Amino acid sequence: MATFKTRLSQISKRNGKIILANDYNSSEKNLTTKTIHNIKTLNPYLCGIKLNFHLLLPLSFKEISKINKTAHNYGLQTIADIKLNDIGNTNKVTTEHLWNLGFDAVIANPIMGLDSLKQLVKSSHKENKGVITLCHMSAPEAKLSYDMEIKMGKSQKLYQLFLDWAITSKVDGIVVGATFPEIIQYCHKKAGSKLDIFSPGIGTQGGSAKNVLSAGTNYLIVGRTIIDDKNPVSISKELQLESFFK
Ligand code: XMP
């Protein structure tokens, strides 16, 4: 079986670089039906779908498995965005559940430490699953933490350390918010093809698809800009076109 990185790259050659953040508010009903409808109507314009706690908490094992199966039937990769950050044993048990649910990859927080991260990557890759780590988040306040000056041998910023750890531990990709294109460019220059860059924060949070793609982003994570639009198909098509012509 191909790796997560290869599977995602293959589908994106055909369908473009948009990953749907399938986020609904807690007041929404029929989350499974709505998500499956999104997969059925939007799949020609997506390479993947990302589920976070908006769905993982309210839905059952059976419902999430059904969503992952449907996504796979349409060729999409699925990502569990839980920003995993725990001790080795807890990370292991958590990812075993995620893989049993049918997910292809997990988003993790590298603050867990380099050794735990290496362990997570090793066990995930053994199952042909992917690991994506946070490098610099998209919210404006992220500057306060991710740009923090730290001293670990040399003086550097926290996101620079997270980038080094991502390369060293051989994760599949990193998350760098679309609202910080200069940091995307920095990470792209430093990591080259070793890491894919995933950027959330397009549209609703102010990021521009065109700018981040030219800065080096490989995949655009888009939620409310698609989900809340009157015509999700047409906005997805527009974004797909932009992602083909960077
Ligand atoms: P919107 O609606 O703003 O949704 O397009 C963005 C999606 O991405 C998640 N998000 C992030 N995830 N690092 C992440 O790993 C980030 O910096 C980040 N910013 C937003 C958010 O939870 C939503 O699903």
Helix-residue proportion: 40-55%
Largest sheet: 8 strands, parallel, barrel
Listing every helix as H and every strand as E from the N terminus to the C terminus, the arrangement reads: HEHEHHEHEHEHEEHEHEHEHH
The counted number of beta strands is 10
- The total of helices stands at 12
Low-confidence stretches: none
The SS-based structural class is alpha/beta
Dominant shape: globular
**Adjacency order of strands in the biggest sheet:** 1-2-3-4-5-8-9-10
Query: Mean of the pLDDT scores?
Result: 96
Query: What separation lies between the terminal Cα atoms?
Result: 30 Å
- Spell out which ligands are present: xanthosine-5'-monophosphate
How would you describe the overall organization of this protein?
Helix 2 runs parallel beside helix 4 (61-73). The protein starts with a helix and ends with a helix. It is built from twelve helices and ten strands. Strands 1-2-3-4-5-8-9-10 form an eight-stranded parallel barrel, surrounded by eight helices. Strands 6-7 form a two-stranded antiparallel ribbon. The relative contact order is 0.14. The model has no long low-confidence stretch (mean pLDDT 96). With 246 residues, the protein is α/β, with parallel strands linked by helices. The protein is 48% helix and 20% strand. The structure holds xanthosine-5'-monophosphate (XMP). Xanthosine-5'-monophosphate (XMP) binds at residues 21, 23, 52, 81, 83, 107, 134, 137-138, 175, 177, 200-201, 204-205, 221-225.
Any key phrases for this structure?
two-stranded antiparallel sheet; binds xanthosine-5'-monophosphate; 246 residues; 20% strand; globular
